[in-house]
Amino acid sequence: MAYKDRAKIYITATTIITPMSAIGDRAIAGELRAIRKELEYIRKHMVDVDMILTAEEERILERGLKEYKEGKTRSLDDVVRDRVAV
Asked: Are residues 70 and 38 part of one domain?
């Protein structure tokens, strides 16, 4: 009780804040800001899993690019048009 009588108490609309809890709240807010900053960095530098190819997928892609350069491929529009016509 003696400490309670000596402590300054700040009253807000929703909470009673003592000087000790105000310091703790500022520390928590600072930690949250730091975590948000780290999360933003992680999101910016995160590798998209869909951008990583397996060895087999890479071989399939290379084969497709080779066939495309050789003119052995058809556009998807042509394939869809042929399927609808049938």
From this structure: no
